Amino acid sequence: MNVWQAAADLVRRSGSGALATVARVRGSTPVPAGTKMLVGAEGRLIGSVGGGCVEAEVIGAALEAQRRREPRLLTQHLNADLAGDLGLSCGGTVDIFVEPLVAEESYISVLESAARAESGLVRTATDWTSAPLKTFEPLAPNPLPQAAATLTRDGRFMEERLQPAPRVFVFGAGHVGSAIARAAAAAGFRVVVIDDRPEYADASRFADGIAVLAADVETALTRYALTTGDAVVIATRGHRNDALILEQVAISPAGYVGLLGSRRKKAVVTKGLKAAGVPAKSLQRVRVPVGLPIGAVTPEEIAVSVVAELIGWRRGEA
User: How far apart are the C-alpha atoms of 253 and 229, rounded to whole Å?
Assistant: First the structure.
């Protein structure tokens, strides 16, 4: 669920609530900057800012912020004992900004603008002595890595840069492809499923938010121009279809290209593509077998292994 929209809905409905945002991190911490948690009158509703003792203190601060109608900036030092409780190998420091939700149209409109936007800048004052100050500015997407949230040097504002989630193009809407699409969507990717069989590329087979296209690879790539921020997973019904797609996708700018199958399949497919003139360097970056080696067998298990690898790619770890 979109936490921005959930916050707007909560304050419209109840007139209260609080939003906790990880504003800055140093060292090893359980969640990255920009992570949010929505808190209602009874406690946590959506999201998490770390769990354990950290979250308990943040929920308490959020309930107090609702009562006092004042924001608060918390600093948590994760010492060795606390880091161990949270499953971390070492400690770090995390700053968490807790703001009460305000039942004013100008404030709510910022939440709703952020909920609708693929990219933009949200600035929130950390001191509300005069009045709550929260603004939204549309921005063009920036392909370069950047912090999702940070405090300004003077500490007067928390700035959040909204960027669209990476796209995952799943070629093949069979059992495995469908499972990968569902798991990738659940992990926060924007998912597009492509299959040249209309009975498989049927939007009714997928949840809202997953785009479905009945088309061949040429049509799909004409409609969707691949970028370095995109991932492609090929899971079609056979070697020939896989090769047709890989021939075009391997030379694309896509940042991640994975092919479902065995190492033998990789050898067979890449041999034919090299003979067809596809550069060896382009084929070397293709991940075959796609996914982490966890012994996955069922479509759902394969989906977990693939999406785990996609998450590593998104985080710069794989």
Answer: 9
**CA distance linking residue 302 with residue 317, whole number of Å:** 19
Look at strands 36-40 and 43-47 and give their pairing. antiparallel
Q: Which fold has domain 167-314?
A: Rossmann fold (3.40.50)
The helix (run of H) or strand (run of E) holding residue 265 is helix 263-275
From first to last of its 318 residues, the chain has per-residue pLDDT tens of 689 999 999 999 999 999 999 999 887 777 889 999 999 988 889 998 876 778 889 999 999 999 999 999 999 887 644 445 545 445 688 899 999 999 999 999 999 999 999 899 999 999 999 889 999 999 887 755 566 899 999 999 999 999 888 999 999 999 999 999 999 999 989 999 999 999 999 999 999 889 999 999 999 999 999 999 999 999 998 888 889 999 999 999 999 999 998 878 878 888 888 888 888 899 999 999 999 999 999 999 999 999 999 999 998 877
| Of the candidates 146, 100, 101, 97, the residue with the CA atom closest to the CA atom of residue 119 | 146
Alpha-carbon distance of 78 to 94, in angstroms, equals 8
pTM: 0.76
Q: How far apart are CA 8 and CA 106, in angstroms?
A: 11
Pair 207, 185: CB distance under 8 Å = yes
Paired residues of 193 in beta bridges: 170, 212
C-alpha 39/C-alpha 7 separation (Å) is 9
Enumerate the CATH 3.40.50.720 domain ranges in the chain, comma separated.
167-314
**Amino acid letter at 168?**
V
Cβ partners under 8 Å of residue 314, min gap 6: 166, 189
The residues, any chain, with a CB within 8 Å of residue 206's CB and separated by 6 or more, are 178, 181, 182, 193, 212
Q: CA 39, CA 57: separation in Å to the nearest integer?
A: 12
Q: CA-to-CA distance for 171 and 257, rounded, in angstroms?
A: 11
